[in-house]
Specification:
Strand 13 and strand 14 form a beta hairpin. The longest helix has 33 residues. Helices cover 39% and strands 21% of the residues. Helix 21 crosses helix 22. The relative contact order is 0.04. It is elongated, with a radius of gyration of 48 Å. The termini are far apart. By secondary structure, it is α+β, with helices and mostly antiparallel strands. Among the domains are: 204 residues, Lipocalin (Beta Barrel); 209 residues, no CATH class; 125 residues; 70 residues, no CATH class. Strands 1-28-27-26-25 form a five-stranded mixed sheet. It comes from Zonotrichia albicollis (White-throated sparrow). This is AT hook containing transcription factor 1. Keywords: Nucleus. Pfam families: ELYS, ELYS-bb.
C-alpha cells in the first residue's frame, strides 16, 4: 500500500504580533522554554506559555483571546508549568500550575475577565493537574464520588515532583473574595478523611485556607501525569519511574499499581479507549512512555486492558464501569524501532500529542431496551510524534490512528508481527506530516489536534462493504497544528479517497492509465467483490475500464466520467466517438442492472411477505438510489455536451435521462418510507401496534362518507365534487385514475388502495415532482390523523428530506384541514403569508366547499382576503352568489357591472335576479339604479316567472320609475288572473294594490288612463267575415291655390306678447341703474 501524506489546507495563520513578542521576550531574557497545547475541550482554545507569560488564542484562527503575566512573591518571576481547561457555572477558565523559587501555586484563571479568581499555595514543584469535578453538594453530577468529596465545591487533582497526589477544594461556592497568585491561600492538607467534613471545611474556609485530601503521600518519585477516567471513575497516576496507579474516586482507594514493560521511563501521557460491544466489560488505557528531552529518547505505546465486573448506564445516560478485576498490558508499540522500512537510525523521538475519538451510532429507533448500555461504534486513538534522523536537517513528523475494533478483528496481537510495518498494518494507519514541516520550518510544532467531527470513512463503495473499507487507512479527517508562531490547518485523506482523487485527475487520460487505475482500485477495495480473487492479467482492458467506471460511479467520483465526456466531445478524433458510445452504452446498461436490483429489493416491501426491514436491505436500497442518482448526472452531462446528434438520438438520450431520474426519485421516496416504518406493508395486525401504518379501510371509509355528505348538502345547487384532494388528483390527469384502478379494490379516486399505488405516482413522467410530493404529504397527514396515539413520529420529516418548500406544505395542510371540516385553522393556514398562493381552480373549490357546507361568512372572508381573479362567467356567478348569500347587495351589483360584457350580461343578470329572488333580496334589488339593458332583463325575468309576487315586484319597478301606463296595464291583467283565485290573503293584497293604482291613475289624463285600462283588456274580434273590396276613388282631385299671407296661431301671438314684455323689462332696468349712478 502506498504511503499516506497529509495535505496543507491553509497558510500559516500567525498569532498577533503582541502575542509573539510577549512570548519571545521571556524566551530570551529568562532562558525559558516555550510550550503550548490545545485545550482539548469544546471551547476551541489553545494556550502558549513561556516563563510567567500566558497567552490564550483561538485554535482555528490564531486570534488572541486572553493574556496574563503572572507575578511572584520574590524577584524571580514564576514559570507556567501546567495548564488544563476548566469550566464552572457557565464560565470557562484554566487551571494553571505556577512554579516559584520556593514552591508552587495553583491558580484558577477566568478567561472571561482575564484575571486569577482563585489561588492556592502547593507544596513542592507542580508536575500535573487534572480536574475531577466542577460542582459540589448534593448534586447528581457528583453522585459517583466519595461522600467526603461531595462536600467540596470543585475538586482538582494536583501532583508534585516528590510524589504528592492532592485533591484540592477549589471553593467555587465562594468567589466573592479577591485572590491572585501573589496573595494565594494556604492549603489545609488532611491525610485521613475526617468524620465531620462539612464542619472541618467551614472552619478551614473561615480562616482563608482551602481543604485538601492527600490521596498519596510523598515517596520521592515524581508524578509525571494525571488523567481522570469518568467512565470508570478512576484517577490514573503515572510516575517518572514507569509505574502506573489506578485510584477509585468512589472509595478513594488504590485499585492497581504496576510498572509498564517499557521500564523506568516516565509515563508521559494517558488516554482512554472503549471497544464496541465487548461482552467481558473490558475497556482500555493507553500509556505513553517518553522523557521528551534527552538525546536518544524513545517513545513507546502500551495498551492496558481493564476488566470490570459490571457495566451499567446511569440516569444521566453516562456509562459507568465498576469493580475492577484486573489490569494487564495487551499491546505495545515502540515508535522508534523497526516500524519503518529502510529508514536511518534515529537520534531522538518526541511525542507531540495523543487523543481518543469515539462516535456513537444513533439508537433512537430502538425500543427493545431503553436501559441498554451503548458502546461507541467508532473508537480510535490518535498519536503524533516527531523523529530526528541522523543526516537529515529537518525532522520527520507522523500521525498514527489505532482502531481498537480492527485490532479485535485482527485477533488482538500483542505487537507488530514479524516483517510488518505501520504503513500496511490493518489496525494502525500512518500519515506523514512532512508537508507541514516543509512549509513552517523553522517553527516548532507544539501540539496536533484532530477534529472529532471531521473523522469519517465516507460512503462504502458497495454493500456489503469490502474488508478494506473498515481499516483505519480509510479514515478522512481534518487536523490543526499548533506552532510557536501560529496555527496551520491540514487534511488527512484515506487510501480510498486518495485513489478517487487519482481517478478524478486522470479524467480524459483514463484510457492510457487503465491498468494503474485498476490496481489502485483493487488495493483500495473499490472494486466488486467478485473481482477480488481475479488476476488483473486475465481481464481485458475493456473489462478493467468497466470496473474502474463502476468504482467511480459507486463512490460518486463523477468528475472522471464527466471529464472524459467533455474532453471527448470537444476534440475531433476518430476514437472519441467510439469512447463516447462505449461510455453511454455502459451507463445505460448500468441503469438497467440497477433497476432490476431495485425491483428485487422492493417486491417484499409491497407484497406482505415481510414485516420489517433489516439494515442490510436498507443499505442496499440506498446503494441503488445513489447509483441511479450518479448515473442520472452522467446522462445529464451527455445531454449538456451533446453536439452533433440527430433528432431521434437526442430524443432517445433525453428519454434515458428522464427515466433514470424518475427511478432515482422513486428509490429515494421508498427509502424514506422504510426509515419512517411505513414500509414494508405488513399484513399482521399485531405489527401495526408498534408503528404507524397505512390504514386504508379507515381512511377510505371517511372519504366515502364525506363525499356522500357533500352530495346531500349540495341539493343540486352546488357542485358536490368539491373535496380539495379530489381536485388535486383530477389536475394530474387520467393516468392517475387508471393507475389507482389497477389494483384490486382500487376506485381510481383518493385514497389509493396501497402505498404501492401511491409510490407508483413517482414513475409517471407527465406529472410535476411538486405535485407528486403534494399528494404524498396529504396522505401522510391522513396517516398521522388515523394514528393519534403516537405523539412522536418521523412522518413530519418528509418535507425536509425532499427540500419541499414550506409554502407548499402549509397549502396542503390547509387543504387537508378544509376537507376535514376544520375551517378556522384551514383558513388561517391559507391566509398565512408564507403559504404558497392558490390558483384559480383551488379558489373555486375552496369557495364551493365552504358554500356547500353552509359556511357563507367564511367564504366571503376568503374572497375578501385572497381577492381571487375572475376570468370566466362561472367564477363571476360563484362570487356573486357568495356576496348575495351574505346580503352584500351593493358589492354584488358593483361586481356584476365590473365584469359584464355584451356576451354575458344577460346570463349574469339572470343569475343575479334568481339568487335575489331565492334569498328574498328583490326589494333591495329594486332600490338600485338600472341601465336600460338591466331594466329590460329584469322586466323580462319577472314577466317570464309565474306567481303573483313576481308580478307585484314588476309593478313596483314600474311605479318607481313612473311607468304608470305599464303599471296600470299590469295591474289590470293581474285582476283578470285573480278572478279564479280564492286565497283571501291574495284578495286583500289585491284590494290594497288596486286602491294604490287608482291613486296613481288619477295623475294621468282621463284618455290615457282609459286607454291603458282598455288596452289591458282582451280585444274581441268581430264575427263577420272580411271581404276584399276595390280600392276607393277620391271624390275630387282638383288642386287649388292657397291664400298668400302669414298664418296667425295662438302660439305665435303668445310669443310676440312675451317678447314685448321682455323689452319693457329691460328698459326699466336701465333707468334704475342710471338714477343710482347720478346719486
Amino acid at each position: 500500500m502506498r504511503d499516506l501524506t497529509a495535505q496543507v489546507t491553509s497558510s500559516l495563520l500567525q498569532f498577533p504580533e503582541v502575542t509573539v513578542e510577549a512570548l519571545g521576550e521571556d524566551e530570551i531574557t529568562l532562558d525559558s522554554v516555550l510550550c503550548g497545547k490545545f485545550s482539548g475541550g469544546r471551547s476551541g482554545l489553545a494556550w502558549l506559555a513561556c516563563g510567567p507569560q500566558l497567552e490564550v488564542v483561538n485554535s482555528v484562527t490564531g486570534e488572541r483571546l486572553s493574556a496574563y503575566r503572572f507575578s511572584g512573591v520574590s524577584e524571580q518571576p514564576p514559570a507556567v508549568r501546567v495548564v488544563k481547561e476548566f469550566s464552572w457555572q457557565k464560565r470557562t477558565g484554566l487551571l494553571v500550575g505556577l512554579e516559584e523559587a520556593e514552591g508552587s501555586v495553583l491558580c484558577l484563571y477566568d478567561l472571561g475577565i482575564s484575571r486569577v479568581v482563585k489561588a492556592v499555595v502547593l507544596p513542592g514543584r507542580v508536575t500535573a493537574i487534572e480536574p475531577i469535578s466542577n460542582d459540589g453538594g448534593a448534586s447528581v453530577s457528583t453522585r459517583h464520588l466519595h461522600q467526603s468529596l461531595r462536600w467540596l465545591f470543585g475538586v482538582a487533582a494536583v501532583a508534585t515532583d516528590v510524589g504528592h497526589v492532592l485533591l484540592v477544594d477549589l471553593c467555587l461556592d465562594d468567589l466573592s473574595c479577591s485572590q491572585n497568585e501573589v496573595e494565594a491561600s494556604d492549603l489545609e492538607v488532611v491525610t485521613r478523611i475526617p468524620a465531620e467534613v462539612p464542619q472541618r471545611r467551614e472552619a478551614v474556609t473561615r480562616e482563608g485556607r482551602h481543604l485538601c485530601f492527600q490521596l498519596r503521600s510523598p515517596a520521592g518519585t515524581a508524578v509525571s501525569t494525571l488523567c481522570y477516567i469518568s467512565r470508570s471513575n478512576q484517577l490514573v497516576v503515572g510516575f517518572s519511574d514507569g509505574y502506573l496507579s489506578l485510584w477509585n474516586m468512589k472509595t478513594l482507594k488504590r485499585e492497581h499499581h504496576s510498572q509498564l514493560e517499557g521500564g523506568r521511563i516516565p509515563v508521559y501521557a494517558v488516554t482512554f479507549q472503549e471497544p464496541e460491544n465487548d461482552p467481558r466489560n473490558c475497556c482500555y488505557l493507553w500509556a505513553v512512555q517518553s522523557t521528551q528531552q534527552s538525546e536518544g529518547d524513545v517513545v513507546s505505546l502500551h495498551l492496558l486492558q481493564l476488566a470490570f465486573g459490571d457495566r451499567k448506564r446511569l440516569a444521566s445516560g453516562q456509562v459507568m464501569y465498576e469493580g475492577l478485576e484486573y489490569c494487564d498490558e495487551r499491546y505495545s508499540l515502540d515508535l522508534t524501532g523497526g516500524i519503518f522500512p529502510l529508514r536511518g537510525q534515529t537520534s531522538n523521538t518526541k511525542l507531540l500529542s495523543c487523543q481518543t475519538i469515539e462516535k456513537f451510532r444513533n439508537h433512537a429507533d430502538r425500543e427493545d431496551n431503553v436501559n441498554e448500555v451503548i458502546s461507541p461504534d467508532t473508537s480510535v486513538s490518535i498519536f503524533s510524534w516527531q523523529v530526528n534522523t541522523y543526516g537529515q536537517g529537518k525532522p520527520s513528523t507522523y500521525l498514527g490512528v489505532f482502531d481498537i475494533n480492527r485490532w479485535y478483528h485482527a485477533q488482538m496481537p500483542d505487537s507488530l508481527r514479524p516483517e510488518e510495518f505501520l504503513h500496511d498494518c490493518p489496525y494502525f494507519a500512518l500519515w506523514s506530516l512532512d508537508p507541514v514541516i516543509s512549509m513552517t520550518s523553522p517553527n516548532l510544532i507544539l501540539d496536533i489536534l484532530v477534529h472529532e467531527r471531521s473523522l469519517s470513512r465516507g460512503v462504502p463503495p458497495s454493500y456489503p462493504p469490502p474488508e478494506q473499507f473498515f481499516n483505519p487507512s480509510t479514515y478522512n479527517f481534518d487536523v490543526t497544528c499548533l506552532l510557536s508562531s501560529g496555527v496551520v490547518h491540514m487534511t488527512c485523506t484515506g487510501f480510498q479517497k486518495e485513489t478517487l482523487k487519482f481517478l478524478k485527475k486522470s479524467g480524459p487520460l483514463i484510457s492510457e492509465a487503465i491498468r494503474d487505475s485498476y490496481s489502485r482500485c483493487l488495493v483500495a477495495g473499490l472494486l466488486s467483490p467478485r473481482l477480488v480473487d481475479v488476476q488483473p492479467s486475465s481481464l481485458s482492458q475493456e473489462e478493467q475500464l468497466e470496473a474502474v467506471l463502476s468504482a467511480a460511479v459507486q463512490t460518486g467520483s463523477l468528475d472522471l466520467l464527466t471529464g472524459c465526456i467533455k474532453h471527448w466531445t470537444s476534440e475531433e478524433q476518430p476514437s472519441s466517438a467510439v469512447n463516447l458510445r462505449f461510455v453511454l452504452e455502459w451507463t445505460w446498461n448500468k441503469v438497467i442492472c440497477t433497476k432490476d436490483e431495485l425491483d428485487q429489493i422492493c417486491v417484499p416491501l409491497f407484497d406482505g411477505s415481510c414485516n420489517f426491514i433489516d439494515p442490510q436491505t436498507l443499505q442496499s436500497l440506498q446503494h441503488c438510489q445513489l447509483l441511479l442518482s450518479n448515473l442520472s448526472t452522467v446522462l445529464n452531462c451527455f445531454l449538456a455536451e451533446a453536439r452533433e446528434l440527430t433528432e431521434k438520438g437526442f430524443t432517445d438520450l433525453t428519454n434515458k435521462q428522464m427515466v433514470t431520474s424518475l427511478i432515482s426519485l422513486y428509490a429515494q421516496v421508498v427509502i424514506w418510507f422504510c426509515r419512517s416504518s411505513l414500509l414494508p406493508e405488513g399484513l399482521d395486525d399485531h405489527m401495526h401496534l408498534s408503528r404507524p401504518f397505512y390504514n386504508y379501510p379507515l381512511i377510505q371509509s371517511y372519504y366515502t362518507g364525506h363525499r356522500q355528505k357533500l352530495e346531500r348538502l349540495s341539493r343540486g345547487k352546488w357542485d358536490s365534487d368539491c373535496l380539495m384532494i379530489d381536485g388535486m388528483v383530477s389536475q394530474l390527469g387520467e393516468e392517475v385514475e387508471k393507475l389507482w384502478q389497477r389494483d384490486e379494490g382500487g376506485t381510481g379516486k383518493y385514497p389509493p388502495v396501497s402505498l404501492h399505488a401511491l409510490l407508483d405516482l413517482y414513475l409517471l413522467e407527465s406529472i410535476e415532482e411538486s405535485d407528486k410530493h403534494a399528494i404524498t404529504i396529504y396522505l401522510l397527514l391522513d396517516i398521522m390523523h388515523s394514528f393519534p396515539n403516537k405523539t412522536e413520529t418521523s412522518i413530519d420529516s418528509f418535507p425536509t428530506a425532499f427540500a419541499i418548500p414550506w409554502g407548499l406544505v402549509k397549502l396542503i395542510q390547509g387543504f387537508w384541514l378544509l376537507d376535514h371540516n376544520d375551517y378556522e385553522n384551514s383558513l388561517a393556514l391559507l391566509f398565512h403569508p408564507a403559504t404558497l398562493k392558490t390558483v384559480s381552480w383551488q379558489h373555486m373549490r375552496i369557495i364551493q366547499s365552504l358554500m356547500c357546507q353552509g359556511e357563507h361568512r367564511r367564504a366571503l372572508r376568503y374572497m375578501q382576503m385572497m381577492k381571487p381573479s375572475m376570468s370566466s362567467s362561472s367564477e363571476v356567478r360563484l362570487f356573486l352568489t357568495v356576496l348575495l348569500s351574505n346580503r352584500c347587495m351593493v358589492e354584488a351589483w358593483g361586481l356584476l357591472q365590473q365584469h359584464t360584457t355584451k356576451l354575458n350580461i344577460e346570463e349574469l343578470l339572470k343569475h343575479m335576479y334568481e339568487i335575489c329572488q331565492e334569498m328574498g333580496l328583490m326589494e333591495d334589488l329594486l332600490k338600485l339604479p338600472f341601465t336600460d339593458t338591466e331594466k329590460e332583463c329584469l322586466e323580462k325575468f319577472l314577466q317570464t316567472k309565474s306567481g303573483v309576487h313576481n308580478h307585484e315586484f314588476l309593478l313596483v319597478h314600474h311605479l318607481q320609475r313612473a311607468n304608470y301606463i305599464p303599471a296600470l296595464q299590469l295591474n289590470q291583467s293581474m285582476k283578470a288572473h285573480l278572478l279564479n283565485d280564492r286565497d283571501p290573503r291574495l284578495r286583500e293584497r289585491a284590494v290594497a294594490r288596486n286602491s294604490l293604482l287608482d291613486q296613481y291613475g288619477k295623475i294621468l289624463p282621463t284618455v290615457q288612463r282609459k286607454l291603458a285600462v282598455e288596452r289591458a283588456k282582451p280585444y274581441r274580434l268581430p264575427s263577420s267575415v272580411s271581404r276584399e273590396v276595390p280600392r276607393p276613388k277620391p271624390l275630387s282631385t282638383a288642386t287649388r291655390q292657397a291664400n298668400a299671407g302669414n298664418v296667425h296661431t295662438r302660439a305665435t301671438f303668445i310669443s310676440k306678447v312675451l317678447s314685448k314684455i321682455g323689452e319693457v323689462w329691460l328698459g326699466n332696468e336701465e333707468k334704475t341703474n342710471t338714477s343710482r349712478y347720478h346719486r
